[in-house]
């Protein structure tokens, strides 16, 4: 494996580590791909070092917690190692199937990394709110607009009044007509997209529940504005060819919201759901 930012830092600190920390460092260097899905207890069991040593190890390399360490490692593995999503991709000689393998790895790693950023309690709150909502409004810009359209389509199938638009000025009257029990689900990788922020602030005046699907960044304006935060890992650079891994994490969360809601209300909508499906099949003939 080539040296990545966080892994290089570990190697550069080897002489400063205690004996227990060196065991941890050695294990991480050899098993970097699986570490983001492990706990401090898992690392402790694998290395024979204490969980406290795992935390001290993180602090020795300048990272405050094991969770933050895992996020940094994920970013290196998905962004730095394959580097498929910035303009340097044009300098490489990869064949299409090689790129397919790299894209698959990056998307898989990003989705798995969401296990470290998505708060179970926030997810429960989001599903509860959706179950009790009358109307759902989804909004995203650029690559996130694709995720918003997918979400709107899925929840329409469940019988919700579920809407989205690519046009910000079309979204304004939709948001203006939201009621207290309705929801606005906004999607932004950076959490700093101006149109998304303005719509969230406008809807908040209506006492509407704001759900944000955005990267884990407590300093971002969208993170601060939202009532419920469904956080994705930071797996892409600002200057990139397009939304790849970040869009996959958004769609994964949307699929989870859809399935969790269907699990709760499925019996009440099953007849209409089945009728829709039968009509789609009929129209294929």
Describe the fold and architecture.
The protein is of the alpha/beta class and 285 residues long. The mean pLDDT is 88. The chain contains twelve helices and five strands. The chain has two domains: 1-81, Arc Repressor Mutant, subunit A (Orthogonal Bundle); 115-282, Rossmann fold. α2 crosses α4, α6 packs across α12 (245-284) and α8 (143-157) crosses α12 (245-284). A five-stranded parallel sheet has the order 2-1-3-4-5, sandwiched between helices. It is elongated and about 65 Å long.
Helix-strand blueprint:
Blueprint: H1 5-12, H2 19-30, H3 40-47, H4 51-60, H5 66-80, H6 96-113, H7 120-131, E1 135-140, H8 143-157, E2 161-163, H9 168-176, E3 183-188, H10 194-204, E4 209-215, H11 221-225, E5 228-232, H12 245-284
Parallel strand pairs: 1-2, 1-3, 3-4, 4-5
């Amino acid at each position: 494996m080539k040296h990545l930012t966080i892994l290089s830092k570990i190697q550069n600190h080897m002489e400063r580590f205690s004996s227990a920390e060196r065991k941890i460092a050695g294990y991480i260097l050899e098993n970097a791909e699986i570490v983001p899905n492990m706990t401090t207890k898992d690392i402790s069991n694998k290395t024979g070092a204490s969980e406290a040593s795992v935390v001290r190890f993180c602090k020795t390399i300048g990272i405050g917690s094991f969770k933050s360490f895992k996020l940094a490692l994920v970013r290196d593995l998905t962004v730095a190692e394959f580097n498929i999503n910035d303009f340097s991709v044009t300098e490489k000689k990869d064949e299409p199937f090689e790129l397919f393998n790299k894209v698959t790895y990056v998307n898989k790693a990003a989705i798995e990394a969401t296990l470290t950023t998505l708060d179970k309690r926030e997810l429960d709150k989001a599903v509860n709110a959706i179950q009790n909502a009358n109307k759902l409004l989804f909004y995203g810009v650029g690559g996130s607009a694709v995720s918003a359209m997918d979400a709107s389509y899925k929840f329409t199938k469940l019988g919700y009044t579920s809407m989205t638009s690519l046009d910000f000025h079309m979204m304004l009257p939709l948001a203006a007509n939201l009621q207290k029990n309705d929801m606005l689900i906004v999607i932004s990788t950076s959490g700093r997209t101006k149109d998304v922020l303005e719509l969230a602030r406008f809807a908040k005046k209506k006492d509407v529940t704001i759900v944000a699907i955005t990267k884990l960044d407590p300093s971002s304006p969208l993170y601060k504005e939202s009532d419920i935060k469904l956080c994705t890992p930071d797996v892409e650079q600002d200057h990139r060819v397009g939304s790849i891994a970040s869009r996959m994490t958004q769609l994964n969360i949307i699929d989870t919201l859809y399935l969790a809601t269907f699990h709760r209300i499925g019996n009440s909508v099953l007849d209409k759901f089945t009728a829709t499906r039968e009509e789609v099949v009929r129209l294929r003939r």
